[in-house]
Amino acid sequence: xxxxxxxxxxxxxxxxxxxxxxxxxxxxxxxxxxxxxxxxxxxxxxxxxxxxxxxxxxxxxxxxxxxxxxxxxxxxxxxxxxxxxxxxxxxxxxxxxxxxxxxxxxxxxxxxxxxxxxxxxxxxxxxxxxxxxxxxxxxxxxxxxxxxxxxxxxxxxxxxxxxxxxxxxxxxxxxxxxxxxxxxxxxxxxxxxxxxxxxxxxxxxxx
Amino acid sequence: xxxxxxxxxxxxxxxxxxxxxxxxxxxxxxxxxxxxxxxxxxxxxxxxxxxxxxxxxx
Lengths: 207, 58
Hints:
The structure holds two protein chains of two kinds.
Chain A: E1 5-8, E2 11-16, E3 19-24, H1 30-40, H2 43-65, H3 68-85, H4 96-115, H5 133-151, H6 155-166, H7 171-178, H8 182-206
Antiparallel strand pairs in A: 1-2, 2-3
Chain B: H1 3-16, H2 24-34, H3 41-44
């Protein structure tokens, strides 16, 4: 019975290692969730995807669009596209994260095209030192993957990681800010880094 | 996890930096909209929506 699954709403009964186990939506892979959205129009699966990726999608859109209010609209348009186009996702062509990233970038590009006037000025004398489109896209996708991975952490570990690596606090400062022992900060940090390493390594293989 | 693996993850975290996030109310509205209970955020601001949408995303 390996490979078989019987769905019960938010959970599925699956054969694993010779015994039946329940698998909740939160345990499903991104790819499985997208396929549920495509094949069953499963709004709970869509909701789970939203929870996993809304912040990462927002970050990508915000970097491109700049304006906070417009970014919120574009993120919503992106997720509407996810719902509408989920049937177009093909697992063999890449990861769900990569597909979601492409949706986000396309939504942001559409928004910029609508807003940006056609330039009629003289060409610049010097090459623009800013990253080119390909380099920028690679940086954006890397940030998208990292943010999605951080969002997948248990909240207690995510808080520690965000304070230490995004806000630059020392482990002692993190302990003080969260009101927990230094040893707990170290334990959570190590656990979180191990989870992130596993997830990001998988995405490099799949993506 | 190896020290090298940990360093790599740490570098990627620092390079990515903190992401801008939508306000908390946005997520709550979007979730409520998906369940059909409330207007979705952009509708709440008076924007017009169209096309195929998830249930509740009018």
